[in-house]
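Why predict the complex rather than its parts? Because the way molecules touch one another can change local conformation, and only a joint prediction can capture that. The input here totals 965 residues.
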Amino acid sequence: MLAFVLRRLIQAVVVMLTVAFIAFMLFQYVGDPVTNLLGQDATVEQREQLRIDLGLDAPFPVQFARFVGNALRGEFGLSLRQGRKVSTLVVERFPATIELALSAAVIALLLGVPLGVYTALRRGSVGSQVWMTLSLVGVSLPTFLIGILLILLFAVIFKWLPSFGRGDVVSIGGWTTGFLSLDGWKHLVLPAVTLSVFQLALILRLVRAEMLEVLRTDYIKFARARGLTDRAVYFGHALKNTLVPVITITGLQLGQLIAFAIITETVFQWPGMGLLFIQAVQFADIPVMAAYLCLIALIFVLINLSVDLLYFAVDPRLRIERVAAAH
Amino acid sequence: MSTVLAPVKAPSRWARLADSDLWYSFRHSPTAIVAALIALLCVVCAVFAHWIAPHNPFDLATLDLLDARLPPAWVEGGSSKYLLGTDDQGRDILSALMYGSRISLFVGLASVALSMLIGVGLGLLSGFAGGSVDAFIMRVCDVMLSFPSILVALLIDGLGRALFPNAHESLAFSVLVFAIALTGWVQYARTVRGSTMVERNKEYVQAARVIGVAPLRVMFRHVLPNVLGPVLVLATIQIAGAIITEATLSFLGVGVPPTSPSLGTLIRIGQDFLFSGEWWITVFPGLMLVLIALSVNLLGDWLRDALNPRLR
Amino acid sequence: MAQPLLEVRHLRVEFPTRRGTLVALDDISFTIAPGEILGVVGESGAGKSLTGASIIGLLEPPGRIAAGEILLEGERIDNLPPERMRSVRGRRIGAIFQDPLTSLNPLYTVGRQLVETIQTHLPVDAQQARARAIALLKETGIPAAEQRFDHHPHQFSGGMRQRVVIALALAAEPQLIVADEPTTALDVSIQAQIIALLKRLTRQHGAAVMLVTHDMGVIAEACDRVAVMYAGRIVEVGPVQEVIHHPSHPYTVGLMGSIPSMDGAHERLLQIDGVMPRLNAIPNGCAFHPRCPRAFDRCRRERPDLMPAAATQAACWLVAAEREAR
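Output of the joint prediction:
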């Protein structure tokens, strides 16, 4: 067990270093690293000083190490577009994206799992086919289009919900939350629903496919042959076996949600990290791009690790086999 | 006692296809037929846009600002000259749709083709070479899989922008196609690698080695036909994804160059007019996009079910 | 004659496909007496497993029972509503499948799966169920039953797992057990142990067994009577020693002759030419006639039913011819 955790930690570090490397390359070789650190309004003397300080003629590994050191402290220089510290910008925007992603995840799970189970058990029924078609549409609709259509319906035609921004937010410590005000909730609805649609459809189809697979296994056949009730067979046996791989995929999807928030934030002008990143790409604002990259990689790595550990806890086979197979 | 069998002529390829389970499944699946028809219609509109479209929305000489912001023909104020209305510059929406689809389809198909090339190539290399080459490529696959496609595409695109700030149009397209292609190659690589490893251990490969035939040539002739099925299914599924990715990138402003607007660009332009009530500028390109993606997805779904031996 | 425990009358199972309807079981009839072990033997694809599946009501769609009846203690069970059939399964008819590895849910402990089965059918509380489960585990020869109760299936070896499966099948004290190739997936050395266990336990619990297998050695070892199936039909049935040593149907003769034996004269092994026909190409008349060395005209035209032969019942016109000659 310990060996397993150690292995995964090492893998995580390797991935982070790789991403840091890519970010470093961006920093150094795309555009001017001095400009990246000081912003565009620095004087010639400031630039010269920094060049000496940075030792830009120092060997490559030294520069890389310095970059990593800075990154670990969250120091990415100044945004080329806004002139402010990158770390400040990111920290400001972080809560908005996280709240959006979490809300979307909850919606997707709460609806996706039961619907997936339903369409598997009531295969061929009208309701099941309706939901399967809807889920196919959900997967075929690009997120931004869903956002626009929702805006058209609820903001333009019905005028029930607002269509951009976060509304009134409350500051607690370093975190700004929209959960504590009605206005905040109203602003959250459309973006969260938009973001959740793709995940919802995905989870629905995944749960259904898994459940159908499980229902075909020998142990389900044997459970039925032993005369167990339908409830025991479907919800006691089949569901548990279905959910184990679904957990992994759903956990990984949380990372996807944070990334796809880029699109939703653009449509709704939601002030999160995604919007920041898009503006950085449009402007070729390298420091912000590099910082976002590293942060996202960190989040992904942490999520992957947690999901792996969770899997370990849930599936008893892995506890022995994985340890035995660890090479 | 042996009986001599009269040589039987094997049925031609077309005859086999017509009699096959695949064709039967297609004929009896109403959704597959409808999806194929819709997809065909969209493709025809896109490919022959130049000849079918009633106007050329990008020929500045034909634009008339007086015709701007007209609603679709069936709404009061519309005109039958512009069936689906016009945008703020007087461009005919219907024609813009066709030209836009053409670009969207082009980018989608090109990126999937490139994806296949990269993926199948790397998969073959990985499966055949084995050892550290294989391990490295698989690690890369793992890392790439855990990153969301949109991020990869955005990164490559952003890099392209930073490196070539005043890029020529075709360069911009190439970067875009490359960016989207990079998001999809992993699945091909994995599938092909699996099959390659299976074949590599078979005796005929070893025999070929002994005889002196380049095993690579043998592998091409035997591995490739085996993986064609799953690769095709993957491709169909990915086409819709690629089209959507391109639309998303264009919507975000980092996709196709503004001189060749795709459906995504049109939708972005239209969003600004939603609140002033000119919904058609956004909705129709949106509908077209959905139609294309949906029909391709339906076809892909049907193909996957039809080729899955366990579901028969 | 005492009422048979299980009676199958003219059972016909069909599979509608796009190329036409395939008949997988064609007019099968047989009985099983209480406490008797009936073997069902035949090649792969002869229909043995389908017979078992039909009896426990787990025939997979699109397969369906097109005609015939299945009676358990005189009552029909083939047309029961699903809820009634569910209560028959496990409680009155138990089942054992081929692969013990895939028969058990890997996520639950063995004990939990046992207790669940017991409590579904018997009115006992958790304590009693647990005690009963442990007793069953002990009976099936699993050492350290109390500890093993909390183990997961992957912690057992193949033979041990099959013992657990047998324990599960017996958990609710059924009168009949349908065992579908229970030893095929096991090591040869374990097979004999499992068969002996099955035989002993079913005698002790008073359960009858329908033992489906393609292994004649298992049949000889464990069964009282045996039915030989071919192409979805029963071609011969009778007491096991008679069918083995004095078979009447040419297919059975071929089967018995193709089994190598350690003792006896070293004659050449008999080989039956050809293969069993596929379901969409079953010949007219007697299904075996194209491969039969003694086929004659009537065999090609009319299908024979089971009729009394020397010591068994056989579906063969030769038997009828011999009877008329006497």
